[in-house]
């Protein structure tokens, strides 16, 4: 899969939510994880992060939104239930993205929403746990940007193998208008 992504939470205060999100981000291959204005005990957060994600994935702790720095060309994608948010199944993920989720029992602050390049929402009746929401966003990114066999028409697994990648044999272009093109398949049949 091309590009990279990071994921984080603004204003998190429950250590188990951050640990769960980081473990899931590590499993999905996140390039970095982060917090903005976090208020949690890092020692408790590590108890739910059984994969020790912060030892394998860069972690950034920004004290506030103004101090948050993203790589150049990285688009910030807010995950929030707003009227004008794009529903996740209809969203085309940026190649380079950082996803930011809101805190427990609250929404992303307006200042964060204003800074986002995109706002997406998971089409549900009500909010779910922040770790679950993050997992759904990362799964959707993987599913929509990854390389998988097409879904079959009937229920069940793939009916065809995914074609192998490769460059194949070389193809040559005619360099000069005076060069003669190789005979076409139709011409070969006429011989």
From TrEMBL:
Residues 150-191 are annotated as: Disordered. The keyword Nucleus does not apply. One of its GO terms (molecular function) is RNA binding. Keywords: Methyltransferase, Transferase. SUPFAM superfamilies: alpha/beta knot. Pfam families: SpoU_methylase. The lineage of its organism: Bacteria, Pseudomonadati, Pseudomonadota, Alphaproteobacteria, Rhodospirillales. It comes from Candidatus Terasakiella magnetica. CDD domains: SpoU-like. Residues 9-139 form the tRNA/rRNA methyltransferase SpoU type domain. The keyword Nucleotidyltransferase does not apply. This is Putative RNA methyltransferase, TrmH family. One of its GO terms (biological process) is RNA processing. Transmembrane segments: none annotated. PANTHER family: OBP33PEP LIKE PROTEIN (PTHR43191:SF7), RRNA METHYLTRANSFERASE 3 (PTHR43191).
């Amino acid at each position: 899969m091309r590009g990279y992504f990071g994921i984080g939470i603004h204003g998190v205060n429950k250590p188990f939510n951050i640990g769960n999100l980081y473990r899931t981000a590590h499993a999905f291959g996140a390039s970095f994880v982060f917090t903005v204005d976090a208020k949690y005990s890092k020692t408790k957060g590590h108890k739910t992060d059984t994969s020790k994600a912060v030892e394998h994935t860069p972690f950034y702790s920004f004290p506030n939104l103004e101090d948050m720095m993203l790589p150049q060309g990285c688009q910030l994608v807010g995950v929030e239930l707003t009227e004008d948010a794009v529903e996740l199944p209809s969203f085309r993920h940026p190649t380079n993205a950082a996803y930011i989720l809101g805190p427990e029992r609250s929404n992303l602050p307006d200042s964060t929403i204003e800074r986002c390049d995109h706002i997406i929402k998971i089409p549900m009746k009500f909010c779910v746990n922040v770790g679950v929401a993050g997992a759904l966003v990362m799964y959707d990114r993987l599913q929509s940007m990854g390389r998988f066999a097409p879904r079959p028409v009937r229920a069940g697994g793939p009916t065809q193998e995914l074609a192998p990648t490769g460059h194949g044999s070389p193809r040559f272009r005619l360099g000069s208008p005076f060069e003669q093109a190789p005979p076409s398949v139709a011409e070969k049949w006429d011989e």
